[in-house]
Specification:
A six-stranded mixed beta sheet has the order 7-8-9-3-10-11, sandwiched between helices. It is 22% helix and 36% strand. β5 and β6 form a beta hairpin. It has eight helices and 22 strands. By secondary structure, it is α+β, with helices and mostly antiparallel strands. The protein folds into two domains: 233 residues, Rossmann fold (3-Layer(aba) Sandwich); 107 residues, no CATH class.
Length: 371
């Protein structure tokens, strides 16, 4: 294994990492860098490559191309053939099903990694109790995992992951087996725990709310590539592609074309914005849910038809189709339930409309609808 001097405070980095199964590429060139004490979420749908990337960092797979470094040490390099097994990477893992042994006590589960490393009994017991104390479970050392709630079992798994004081913790969708209410409660608790323990973590999830709550940076993955790597705030404010915006459910995507100094919804006579510039441009935009308010159909508002509605904790989220433009669906949050088939008028704040690419939209007029 080749070593090199750590660069600043980088905890883990990958350079041009690819993984192929035969002729099929699973990862297509991944470059990430995670600082010590930070959490990186790998976010994306099933099959996007996020779990594969986690396994590469863990040492459960070897890259076809590229290299992986942890704390300045090259732990995998396809070009040279260097490869450090998992036990040599000084990391902990929290699995989807927690992987707790039912025949062992909570203390026995937590101390097992130390036992495998040949740590003496007295030192092992002291470090086990210290790890349990850090997650608030020191009083449960003699219980069986089956006596604990799902959230408590998760904390046991975290205590086992941190007991050997690893430099990196890997989380493989640790909340996916919990019911919805417990999962929502545990997201905030887990985020607080990661911060209070000062952990450096990579967290795999398909749930965007988990990623945005827990992580300092989020890598949105699709088809073996990273579509965008940014902080949660930047992802929401400036999604790099329509695919990122759609996956994060930030709003509706539409194509606009410029004619007669107006931005029209493509293929229609419904205008959204005034534009003083070139005619013939076509741009793709995000119209965020937060930019839209619904009311009665009236002049100056865009006419739409409600397709469906579902309740959220902060109101009813309705999907509506614009009248005029084809295949333009937007999302609007309403205090009152909007029923399928109902007509509504939409007001849109043009300053919140996000344009993909380099085109700059001007906001001289909010909405101008032309029959």
């Amino acid at each position: 294994m080749t070593a090199f001097r750590p660069v600043n405070d980088v905890a883990v980095s990958t350079a041009g990492v690819e993984l192929h199964y035969g002729e099929t590429p699973v990862l297509k060139g991944i470059d990430v860098s995670l600082s010590k004490g930070k959490t990186l979420a790998l976010l994306g749908p099933s099959g996007c490559g996020k779990t594969t990337l986690l396994r590469l960092v863990a040492g459960l797979l070897a890259p076809t191309k590229g290299s992986i470094s942890i704390a300045g040490q090259v732990v995998a390099d396809a070009a040279s053939g260097a490869f450090a097994p998992p036990e040599k990477r000084n990391l902990g893992m929290v699995f989807q099903d927690y992987a707790l042994w039912p025949h062992l006590t909570v203390g026995g589960n937590v101390s097992f990694p130390l036992e495998m490393r040949g740590i003496g009994r007295a030192d092992r017991k002291a470090r086990t109790m210290r790890a349990l104390e850090r997650v608030g479970l020191q009083a449960y050392a003699d219980r069986r995992p089956s006596d604990l709630s799902g959230g408590q079992q998760q904390r046991v798994a975290i205590a086992r992951a941190i007991v050997a004081e690893p430099q990196l913790i890997l989380f493989d969708e640790p909340l996916s087996n919990l019911d919805r209410e417990l999962r929502e409660n545990m997201v905030g608790e887990l985020a607080e725990l990661i911060t209070s323990l000062g952990l450096t973590a990579i967290y795999v999830t398909h749930d965007h709310s988990e990623a945005l709550t827990l992580a300092d940076d989020v890598a949105v993955m699709r088809g073996g590539l990273i579509e965008q790597l940014a902080s949660p705030d930047k992802l929401i404010a400036s999604p790099a592609t329509p695919e990122v915006a759609d996956f994060l459910r930030l709003g509706g995507i539409a194509d606009l074309e410029c004619r007669d100094d107006l931005w029209f919804f493509k293929g229609s006579d419904v205008a959204l914005l005034r534009h003083e510039g070139r005619t013939g441009n076509v741009v793709r935009v995000l119209i965020p849910t937060s930019a839209i308010s619904a009311g009665e159909i009236a002049p100056g508002r865009l006419a739409a038809t409600v397709l469906r509605s579902q309740f959220r904790g902060d109101g009813h989220l309705a999907t509506v189709a614009l009248v005029g433009p084809s295949n333009v669906e937007l999302q609007v949050l309403s205090r009152a339930k909007l029923r399928a088939g109902e007509g509504v008028g939409l007001s849109i704040d043009p300053t919140q409309v996000h344009c993909f690419g380099n085109t700059v939209l001007s906001f001289n007029q909010e909405i101008s609808q032309h029959a």
